[in-house]
């Protein structure tokens, strides 16, 4: 079972721990014991070396009591908002895990008292951990936090409750101070890399695919990647055209692919040119055309429907693709 499904980001109680057999425990048994997804344990093993230290006959890897104590420590730190890379370092360094004190949140790259803080009003500890990792320009830690939350909560929750609040906080910091574009870049790259890796791994079962594009001159594409990952969770294939897609290129892609749906993202009002929409090809069967992002607010497009949030976009495009 993944960690809890409520909106508070707190861990569910972990079942009373049964004694660990001499042979050790399998990844599934440890996952159940700690209340984390098996995929999360494999990620912690691969990225941080927090894996099983013994092998049993038949080469199935088994976790012993020391391995599990380290993982328990890792889980506690991550849940209290410590970036995953720092939590892992502390868990590995703890000779006696029970006695170890929590690590300080990541401050690599920051000056003490340097004022590099991003406020996340009402943010969960996990969101504050992500903001700290981004502020420290620690892209690996950002990606690990996003990955861990995706494993536990899925795309929509992770986008709405972890990523969006931090993006808004980082954007507000830039607006107020003119500083922190490098933080936006590191954070954006980490988020995009994690979503894109999940899209690449997904099995696709939809009848047809959908096209996702940011309009001409639009560099903001993270919501498109969240959407692609949300569709991938539902086994719907999305073809990503990405940033700054010229209207002619989009039209050509529509003719060649014949998608069930198309979603056009505009973040900034100056990129939401409704004239682009009039140039899209007439096709039979007609694809669903959705317009999303704050750029479209207040415009009256001749073609396409405005869609307001990620879940609604996933639901409409899943239907349009026959998923
Ligand atoms: C990351 C980022 C960047 C990255 C983009 C990287 C990438 N790969 O996408 C980089 C660094 C390249 C960038 C550049 C710029 N950016 Co910028 N950027 C952002 C940031 C932090 C997040 C953008 C984002 O993904 N937003 C998505 C969510 C978080 O926001 P939202 O769209 O408002 O979400 C609402 C709805 O759209 C809906 N929703 C959310 N997700 C989804 C998903 C789907 C599918 C649907 C249907 C709906 C939906 O629900 C939300 C809540 O109401 C924002 C801050 C912000 N508040 O958005 C600034 C922000 C958008 N950027 C801004 C600016 C000014 C710029 C620049 C012009 C200057 C600069 N800061 O460097 C450049 C040029 C960009 C260009 N020409 O296109 C301003 C825009 C101000 C405005 N309204 O005009 C913002 C708002 C920062 C700010 N507070 O001032 N940026």
Please summarize what this structure is.
This protein is α/β, with parallel strands linked by helices and 323 residues long. The chain has helices at 27-34, 38-48, 65-79, 84-93, 125-135, 139-153, 155-177, 181-201, 222-233, 247-257, 275-278, 310-320; strands at 54-55, 61-62, 210-214, 238-242, 261-265, 288-292, 305-307.
Protein architecture, described:
This protein is an alpha/beta fold and 323 residues long. The protein folds into three domains: 27-99, Multidrug-efflux Transporter Regulator, Chain: A, Domain 2, CATH 1.10.1660.10; 125-200, Methyltransferase, Methionine Synthase (B12-binding Domains), Chain A, domain 1; 204-320, 3-Layer(aba) Sandwich (Rossmann fold). The protein is built from twelve helices and seven strands. The strands form two sheets. A five-stranded parallel beta sheet has the order 4-3-5-6-7, sandwiched between helices. Strands 1-2 form a two-stranded antiparallel ribbon. It is globular and about 70 Å long. Residues 1-16, 96-102 and 104-115 have low confidence and may be disordered. Bound molecules: cobalamin (B12). The site of cobalamin has 31 residues, from helix 7, helix 8, helix 9 and helix 12. Cobalamin is lined by residues 164, 167-168, 170-172, 174-175, 181, 184-185, 188, 192, 217-223, 226-227, 267-268, 292-294, 307, 309-310, 313.
């Amino acid at each position: 079972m993944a960690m809890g499904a409520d909106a508070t980001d707190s861990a569910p109680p972990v079942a009373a721990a049964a004694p660990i057999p001499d042979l050790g425990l399998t990844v599934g048994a440890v996952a159940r014991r700690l209340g984390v997804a098996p995929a999360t344990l494999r990620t912690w093993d691969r990225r941080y070396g927090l894996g099983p230290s013994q092998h049993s006959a038949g080469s199935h890897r088994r976790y012993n009591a020391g391995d599990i104590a380290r993982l328990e420590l890792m889980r506690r730190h991550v849940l209290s908002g410590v970036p995953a890379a720092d939590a892992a370092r502390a868990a590995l360094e703890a000779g006696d895990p029970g006695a170890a004190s929590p690590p300080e949140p990541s401050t690599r790259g920051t000056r003490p008292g340097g004022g590099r803080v991003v406020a996340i009003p009402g943010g969960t500890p996990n969101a504050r951990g992500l903001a700290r990792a981004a502020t420290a320009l620690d892209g690996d830690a950002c990606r690990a936090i996003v990955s861990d939350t995706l494993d536990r909560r899925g795309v929509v929750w992770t986008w709405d409750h972890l990523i969006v609040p931090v993006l808004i906080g980082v954007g507000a910091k830039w607006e107020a101070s003119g500083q922190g574009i490098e933080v936006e870049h590191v954070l954006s790259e980490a988020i995009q890399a994690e979503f894109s890796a999940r899209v690449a791994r997904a099995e696709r079962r939809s009848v047809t695919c959908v096209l996702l594009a940011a309009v001409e001159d639009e560099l903001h594409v993270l919501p498109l990647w969240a959407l692609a990952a949300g569709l991938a969770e539902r086994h719907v294939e999305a073809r990503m055209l990405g940033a700054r897609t010229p209207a002619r290129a989009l039209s050509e892609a529509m003719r060649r692919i014949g998608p069930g749906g198309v979603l056009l993202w505009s973040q900034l009002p100056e990129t939401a040119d409704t004239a682009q929409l009039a140039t899209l090809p007439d096709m039979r069967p007609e694809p669903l055309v959705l317009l999303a992002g704050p750029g479209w607010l207040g415009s009256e497009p001749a073609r396409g429907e405005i869609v307001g949030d990620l879940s609604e976009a996933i639901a409409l495009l899943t239907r349009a693709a026959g998923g």
